[in-house]
Amino acid sequence: MKTFTAVLAAVAVVAPALVAAPAMAQPSHQSSHRQTKTVVTKKTTTYKTFRKGDRFDRNHARNYQQVDYRKYRNVKAPPRGYHYVRSGNDLLLVGITSGIVSAVTAGMFR
Question: CB of 78 within 8 A of CB of 27?
Answer without folding.
Answer: no
